[in-house]
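Researcher: Let's do a round of design. I'm pasting the structure tokens now; please hold your answer until I've finished.
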């Protein structure tokens, strides 16, 4: 199994963008993605995991549920980001930010 720290020319999609936004709102570090490949017979399968670090410095890693062919490696990042987002959204935002967003300012 090998890994690469980023995928070439892949732009963030819906789940990745939403995860980044949710982390920023909660004053968490930006998500960090890792791409993995695994040779399977005559083909290579790709997957990913994403790590987020909460405000206390505790890292959480979320693994994509599936393996993908190379042209769909961004789907692996999206899969991992979706799982992470569900967890991150359960974390309360900082108090002063909740008041500001509620007031509509």
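Researcher: That's everything. Go ahead.
Model: Designed sequence:
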């Amino acid at each position: 199994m090998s890994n690469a720290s980023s995928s070439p020319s892949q732009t963030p999609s819906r789940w990745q963008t939403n995860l980044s936004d949710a982390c920023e709102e909660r004053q968490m570090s930006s998500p960090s993605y890792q791409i993995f490949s695994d040779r399977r017979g005559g083909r290579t399968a790709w997957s990913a995991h994403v790590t987020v670090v909460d405000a206390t410095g505790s890292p959480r890693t979320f693994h994509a549920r599936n393996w993908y062919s190379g042209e769909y490696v961004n789907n692996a990042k999206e899969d991992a980001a979706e799982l992470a987002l569900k967890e991150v959204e359960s974390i309360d935002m900082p108090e002063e930010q909740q008041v500001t967003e509620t007031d509509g300012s």
